[in-house]
UniProtKB/TrEMBL annotation:
Residues spanning the membrane: none
GO biological process terms on file: regulation of translational initiation
Pfam family name, one: Impact_N
InterPro entries reported for this sequence: Impact, Impact_N, Impact_N_sf, Ribosomal_Su5_D2-typ_SF
Organism, as annotated: Galbibacter marinus
Protein name: Impact N-terminal domain-containing protein
Family of the protein in this entry: Belongs to the IMPACT family.
Source organism, top-level taxon: Bacteria
Annotated coiled-coil segments of the chain: none
Segments forming domain Impact N-terminal: 20-126
Gene Ontology CC, one term: cytoplasm
Length: 204
C-alpha cells in the first residue's frame, strides 16, 4: 500500500517571469482544504489588487479516487493558465498544494501558446523554489482501557515506536495514537491479545 505523498513544506518566495512586457508573479502554498486555497487567493489578490489576472490551480488528496483539484483561468483564454499550472503540480507529483500566478499585461498579446508557456514556466519556477517534503498518510486509533493495563499498553506503544497524539490517564484511560496507514492492521493485531483494551478508528 502506498501511504506516502509529496507536498511543499512552507509558502514559497515570490518568483517573477517576464515575456514581451507582461509580468507573471508566482506563489505556492501548502494547503489542507479548499478554504485554505480561497484564503490564500484573497491574500494574493489584496497584494496585487491592480493586476487583471489571478490564475491558479490546487490539488488535495492522496489517491486517484479521492483526489480533488481545481484550475482557474481568471479571464485568460480557456485552458491557457489554470491547466498549465495544474500540470506542474502533476509534473512534480505533489498534492495538498495551491499555486497562484498573477499577470500584469505588458501591452503585447502573447497568443495561446505564449500564455500556456508563461503560466507553465512561472508555476515550474515557483515549485523549483519550494521545499518539497515526503509525508505519510496516518490513521488515528483510540485506545480505551482500565488503568491497571497501562504497563501492557505502554509496552506495545514503545515496542512499535508509536506516536502518542493525546492521552487521558484516570481510572479509565484513553490514548490517541497515530499510525502509518500501511501498518494499521499490524498495530491492531499487536493490541488484539490485550482483551480488555478497546481499539477503534477515530476522526480526531
Amino acid at each position: 500500500m502506498n501511504d506516502q505523498y509529496k507536498t511543499i513544506e512552507e509558502p514559497t518566495e515570490e518568483v517573477l517571469f517576464k515575456d514581451k512586457g507582461s509580468k507573471f508573479y508566482g506563489y505556492a502554498f501548502p494547503i489542507q482544504s479548499e478554504e485554505d486555497a480561497k484564503e490564500r487567493l484573497e491574500q494574493i489578490k489584496s497584494l496585487h489588487s491592480s493586476a487583471r489576472h489571478h490564475c491558479y490551480a490546487w490539488q488535495l488528496g492522496y489517491h486517484k479516487d479521492k483526489i480533488q483539484y481545481r484550475a482557474n483561468d481568471d479571464g485568460e483564454p480557456s485552458n491557457t493558465a489554470g491547466a498549465p499550472i495544474h500540470g506542474q503540480i502533476l509534473s512534480f507529483d505533489l498534492t495538498d498544494v495551491f499555486i497562484v500566478v498573477v499577470r500584469y499585461f505588458g501591452g503585447v498579446k502573447l497568443g495561446v501558446g505564449g500564455l500556456i508557456n508563461a503560466y507553465r514556466t512561472t508555476a515550474q519556477m515557483t515549485l523549483e523554489k519550494a521545499t518539497i517534503v515526503e509525508k505519510t498518510i496516518d490513521i488515528h486509533f483510540k485506545l480505551q482501557f482500565e488503568y491497571k493495563h497501562i504497563n501492557e499498553v505502554m509496552r506495545v506503544i514503545k515496542e512499535k515506536n508509536l506516536n502518542i497524539l493525546d492521552q487521558k490517564m484516570h481510572l479509565s484511560c484513553e490514548i490517541i495514537i497515530g499510525i502509518r496507514q500501511s501498518k494499521a492492521e499490524d498495530i491492531k493485531a499487536a493490541f488484539a491479545h490485550l482483551y480488555e483494551v478497546k481499539i477503534e478508528n477515530t476522526e480526531d
